[in-house]
Amino acid sequence: MKYTVKENARHCLMAFFVFLFFIIFFGCKTVPESESENESYEFTYADYKIQPASYKIPGDGKDNFTIAVLPDIQSYTRKRSQKDKNKKCAMNNYTLLYDQVDYVAKNTIAQGGPIVFAVFLGDMVQCLGRTTCEWVYANNAVKKLDSLIPYSVIIGNHDYDKKVEDKEQNKDFLVGTKKFEKYFGPKSKHFAGKEWYKGHSPDNLASCIVFNAGEKQILYIGLSFEPSDEELKWGQEQINKYHDIPVIVATHGYLNSRGNFIGLENHNPVEGNSAQDVYEKFIYPNKNIFLVLCGHAFSGIKGEARRADKNIAGYTVYSLLSNYQGRMDYYRVAGFPGRPEESGDGFFRLMNFDVKKKKIYVQTYSTAFDCFETDEDSEFVLDISDFSKRFGW
Question: How far apart are CA 265 and CA 43, in angstroms?
Fold first, then answer.
């Protein structure tokens, strides 16, 4: 049978729509909510590989401990994403954040669990210092960990007081940290007088913490966004004080979603350092730094990346990006009408250290879906067999 050009075009178009129909309706993955229930979730925005939450945090006892990493929570605290503040919103997004921190709190060592430390990777709010309710939501979440475990809050680019236009340089600068210092600075209720809080930089934005990890100790340095040379100098002084224990560094922006160092965004009036600069000036020269944690960068739903570099002594330094703020499946799954809100879907990181096996088992867990994401970017193992030589572990 012969067809005209128009008929051929029409048949091709029909075939395309049939193909699209099958992709949309049959290409989605249906995943059990738990092993014991028959309900299912249909993921239409991201094709997660997940495992039911009966998959418990591995390890227990003195040779195992866990660190919780909560990145970029501004999608949860953002004012326009709260039903209380915006009638068009289907729910209060901050409840997803509270569920995350409740999970961490219930699994802290103080409550019989394995979590010994938690870090919030910055961007605690969306709208800088002008929207107080966002700071209140963030503060209410963080204080759930008070008196349970040591924890850290670092500043992100959304956590400054305001943005100021510089017409001569044709760019915007982030200025002021009064709000951040009020809620999460060294004089705040979260850190003032805490034995494990060992100090802060002259600008009050970087912090030094020593926490117990099983029978060992770990030094943590939280740097600001694009830290200055003065801040890196301060950080070096802290490492020099605790020269014989492992060091974790956190800074808001460090890797992009491809695992490369991010460039200098020059948001700060005081000249800061790019990720490459931070690596060369601070990470590489310090043989005890073994881990760098960051958030900030993401591309759509992709906000995970990692890399491994060698420091001056030839030891491995792992750098991990985690940022889930672009995800919005929870709204679709819950059946909320209208445009889905970016929420992060309740995902955050659990880093499970096994001292005997010299491994770090990294997991990505969602309290909203009660499941673990298990693709290669979300669940993986880091080898720390050099800890025996480096630290005598």
Answer: 34
List of residues 6+ apart from 7 with CB closer than 8 A: none
Contacts of residues 231-234 at CB distance under 8 Å and 24 or more positions apart, as own/partner, are 231/201, 231/203, 231/205, 231/206, 232/273, 232/278, 232/281, 232/282, 234/201, 234/202, 234/206
Pick 54-391's CATH classification: 3.10.450.350, 3.40.47.10, 3.60.21.10, 3.60.20.30: 3.60.21.10
Say if residues 213 and 308 touch (Cβ distance below 8 Å): no
8 A C-beta contact, residue 94 and residue 133: no
Give residue 122's identity as a one-letter amino acid code. G
pTM metric for this prediction: 0.86
DSSP string for residues in 139-166: HHHHGGGTTTS-EEE---GGGSSEEEEE
Task: Give me the average pLDDT of each 10-residue run along the chain (393 residues).
Answer: 45 45 34 29 44 54 88 97 92 96 95 95 96 98 98 97 82 91 98 97 97 94 96 98 96 97 80 95 98 93 94 98 92 82 92 95 93 92 96 94
